[in-house]
Amino acid sequence: MKILIVTQGYYPGQKYGGPPVSIKNFCDLMVQSIEVFIITLNHDLGDSQVYQSIAQGWNILGNCSVMYLQDKCFNRNTFEREICMLKPDVIYLQSLFQQCVLPVTMIAKKMNLKLLLAPRGELCSGAMKKKYKKLPYIFLLRMLGLTRKIAFQSTSPEETNDIVKYFGVQSNVYYLENIPSKPRTEYNQRFKESGVARIIFISRIVEKKNLLYALICLQSVTEGDVVFDVFGSIEDEGYWEKCLKASDKLSPNIKFTYRGELAHDDVQNVMSNYDVFILPTYSENYGHVIAEALSVSVPVIISNTTPWNCVNEERAGWAIPLDNRNGFVDAINNIISMNNSQYVILSRNAKTLFENSSRYEKLKEKYLFALKQIVKN
Prior knowledge:
- This protein is of the alpha/beta class.
- Helices cover about 35% and strands about 20% of the residues.
- The chain contains 12 helices and 14 strands.
- It has an 8-stranded mixed sheet with strand order 3-4-2-1-5-6-7-8, sandwiched between helices. A 6-stranded parallel sheet has the order 11-10-9-12-13-14, with helices on both faces.
- The protein is globular and about 65 Å long.
- InterPro entries: Glyco_trans_1.
């Protein structure tokens, strides 16, 4: 089976967030069963510099073939030419709102090709705040008849409801969970001293990820020896300025450091040097970075707007409503006060939760079955 993915961003880019991780994990999981081809842009998000060490035409990158295009070539004519040459069994789109979606769906309709579209959380309430921009576009897709034969990928029951709400296509929705990154076999083992905590935030510096909220919570933490390190690309300078002003109000017991951008391949290794991962995000379709924290036995302090609310009952961390700021402060203080024997239990629970939620062979079977059904139908 041959799958073509058309997406604006893929590796070696580091600023496109979770979708490239989802694509790479899909390629790695399915390598023995399908051929994956990817058409994408030749530069990172917000950059004009072309990736180094890429050639014209198709490049072999890991377990897939990738064609990198200039912006001016990332258009319908190129897509149609390559689709005609490749003759994919399924075209797999990674967004509802990327610029490639409309031309690719029109090509698929014209050539009667099978198309699977993954909204990646773009229809959830947190992401649909600016409906006045997005609803006319959804209406256009429906009026042009472009969504009638599209198969949609949902990664949660909530996302299934969102797809049905906006597109009314319940029979064409396939529930396929996100594929987590496989954990490293070796990572740093931490000794937790009571009264000390190393806290890490890894995500893009934008309002949605809510770093400012984490800093405001930390302003109320006045005891203990705390390190708070932040990794991620600064995509919103105005928001980052607000974060810096909030960091100036931290108590002297908290050492705040911005560590810059972090390559995805380094996330697990870096994460394993810390006691807890914090992400009070407004919403996550999956939250790859949460899964990667758990995979290296790092407990999490997160909002209850992700699929990982089970950390509460599994005692692998805290999933807390954003309107409960005291709950975040209490969780941070709880981590600070823990001694090693208490922390080891929490850490083991994190690892166990990840292992129980990531059954790779079952995921592979589900994806293969769904893709075969899409081709058949």
